[in-house]
Design goal:
α11 runs parallel beside α14. It is built from 14 helices and 17 strands. It has 449 residues and is an alpha/beta fold.
C-alpha cells in the first residue's frame, strides 16, 4: 500500500483514527472510490481526500494486530474500511458541521451586488428571464453601502458585481467603491459580465477605484453561435472586441475566466471557438476557459453524455496556449462550504432585497438593505446542510457535492457527473505525479553522470 495523497490537513486536526474492534466485520466505506489507472489499482476517500495505491477487500473481520492484518489495520484506521451498517451520511454531516463551525464568522463574508437586471444582450437562455428589468435607485445604493459597512465579517470585503449587465451602471459601482474607500474598509472585487462594454477607460477603473481582481466573461461558441445566442440590441463586432479586451485585462494582471455556455446545438463548433480565442487573445497568462452546460441540458436526459464531451475537450484550450481548466470544483480538497449560500454571502438585488444565492427566486429573500435581516429563520432553513436529500444519503460523492436539500440548481444523473469529474481529476493528479517522478529520476541520473 502506497500513500499518494495525504489526508486533508484541516480534517486531520479533528478527525481521530478509527480504532479496530475485535470480531467486527469491516466493509469498504461508501466514500471509498476504487479505480484503475495505467494498470494499477487505487482508492480515493472523498471525505478525507486521501489517495492510496491499493485494492480494498470486499470485507474483513478484525482478529487483532498482526503482520498479516497490517494493511487491513491501516485501511480501518484511515476510514477506508468501516463497520458494516455504519450510517456514514450522519457521520459526514457531523464532521462537516464541526468544520463549518470552526470556519464560521459573524456577519457576511462577501456580497454579490446586482446593480441592475437590465442588459444590452438578450441571451436565448437568460437566467433572469421573467424578472422585472429594474435598476438600483439612489436610496437603494446608499442603503447597500450602509448595509455592507454594518454587516461585513472582516477585512477585506469581497464584492461580486453581477446582473443583468453590471457595466450598464458604472456610476453605482463608483459610488459603492468610493464609499468603502472613504470609510477605510479595504475591498476587492470580481465581476460577471458579457464583456461588450469593456473599454480602455473601463479597464482603468477596474485597475483603480473598482479594484477588480477577476472577471468572468460569457461567450457562447464560435462567432455565428455567439451572435445568434447573445442577440445584442446593437452588435458592434463584440466577438472580436471582447478578445482584445481580454488581452488587455490579462496584460494588466486581472484574471479572466471565459465561460462558454454549451448544449448540443453549439458543441460541434467549440473547437473553432477555442482556435479563435487562441488567435485573438495575445496575452493568455491570466486567462482560463471553461464550459458550462445550460440549465435545461443539466436537467435533461443527455446531461451525462454532454459532460463526457466537456471532459474529453479539457485539453483544447491548453493546445492554443491557455491555462488548463475544468468545469467543476476540485474534489481533491475538503470543503466546508460549497456555494455562496453556505459560506455567508449576501446577494443584494436591485430593489434592495437580500437573498442567500444568486440562483434563488426573489421570494427566497430574508431581509432588505434598508431593514437588515428580517427573517433569519428563512436564511438558516435554506442553508441547512443536515437535511440531506434521501437520494443522496448513500452517495459516495456527498463530500464533493452540496447536501443542501433546497439547492435550486437542476442536475440529472449527478452521481455519474461527479464520478466522471473526480476520476478525471484523480487521473490527472496521478499523471502529474508520474511526470514529476520521471523528471526527478532524470535529474538524479544527470547528477550521477
Amino acid at each position: 500500500m502506497i500513500e499518494l495523497k495525504k489526508q486533508d490537513a484541516a480534517l486531520a486536526r479533528i478527525l481521530p483514527e478509527q480504532e479496530p474492534r475485535l470480531g467486527v466485520r469491516y466493509v469498504p466505506s461508501q466514500f471509498a472510490l476504487s479505480f484503475s489507472h495505467r494498470g494499477k489499482r487505487f482508492v480515493y476517500h472523498t471525505l478525507t481526500t486521501r489517495l492510496l495505491e491499493t485494492e480494498l477487500p470486499e470485507s474483513h473481520v478484525w482478529s487483532g494486530a498482526s503482520e498479516e492484518n497490517e494493511t487491513a489495520e491501516a485501511l480501518i484506521r484511515g476510514l477506508f474500511l468501516v463497520p458494516e451498517g455504519k450510517d456514514e451520511c450522519a457521520y459526514y454531516n457531523s464532521v462537516s458541521a464541526l468544520m463549518r463551525q470552526m470556519d464560521r464568522k459573524s456577519g457576511n463574508q462577501s456580497f454579490v451586488i446586482l446593480p441592475t437586471l437590465r442588459c444590452n444582450a438578450r441571451c436565448i437562455y437568460c437566467y433572469e428571464a421573467g424578472r422585472e428589468q429594474s435598476t438600483m435607485g439612489p436610496e437603494t445604493v446608499e442603503a447597500t453601502l450602509r448595509y455592507i459597512l454594518e454587516t461585513h465579517a472582516g477585512e477585506p470585503v469581497w464584492l461580486t458585481w453581477f446582473g443583468g449587465e453590471p457595466l450598464l451602471c458604472p456610476d453605482i459601482i463608483d459610488r459603492i467603491c468610493t464609499g468603502l474607500r472613504e470609510a477605510g474598509l479595504p475591498y476587492r472585487c470580481k465581476m460577471i459580465t458579457n464583456g461588450s462594454l469593456i473599454t480602455p477607460a473601463v479597464i482603468e477603473k477596474m485597475l483603480g477605484l473598482w479594484n477588480i481582481k477577476r472577471i468572468q466573461i460569457s461567450m457562447d461558441g464560435a462567432e455565428a453561435d455567439y451572435i445568434a445566442r447573445k442577440q445584442y440590441r446593437v452588435y458592434r463586432d463584440d466577438y472580436h472586441r471582447i478578445m482584445e479586451s481580454v488581452s488587455r485585462l490579462s496584460e494588466a494582471g486581472i484574471s479572466v475566466v471565459i465561460r462558454c455556455n454549451v448544449d448540443e446545438e453549439n458543441w460541434d463548433r467549440v473547437p473553432e471557438f477555442i482556435r479563435d480565442l487562441g488567435a485573438g487573445i495575445t496575452h493568455k497568462e491570466k486567462v482560463r476557459i471553461y464550459y458550462a452546460l445550460l440549465n435545461d441540458v443539466r436537467a435533461g436526459e443527455n446531461a451525462l453524455s454532454m459532460w463526457k464531451k466537456v471532459v474529453e475537450a479539457r485539453g483544447l484550450a491548453a493546445e492554443v496556449g491557455f491555462r488548463p481548466s475544468t468545469s467543476y470544483s476540485s474534489g481533491l480538497r475538503f470543503r466546508a462550504h460549497f456555494c455562496m449560500a453556505g459560506s455567508g454571502t449576501a446577494v443584494i438585488c436591485p430593489d434592495g432585497r437580500i437573498c442567500p444565492c444568486e440562483h434563488c427566486p426573489p421570494e427566497s429573500f430574508f431581509g432588505t438593505v434598508f431593514e437588515g435581516t428580517t427573517d433569519p429563520a428563512r436564511r438558516a432553513e435554506f442553508c441547512r446542510e443536515d437535511r440531506t436529500r434521501e437520494k443522496c444519503r448513500d452517495c459516495p460523492f456527498l463530500p464533493v457535492c452540496t447536501n443542501f436539500a433546497s439547492c435550486p440548481t437542476p442536475q440529472q444523473d449527478c452521481r455519474g457527473m461527479r464520478e466522471l469529474f473526480l476520476l478525471d481529476e484523480l487521473k490527472c493528479f496521478l499523471d502529474r505525479r508520474l511526470e514529476q517522478s520521471a523528471q526527478e529520476e532524470s535529474e538524479a541520473d544527470g547528477e550521477i553522470c
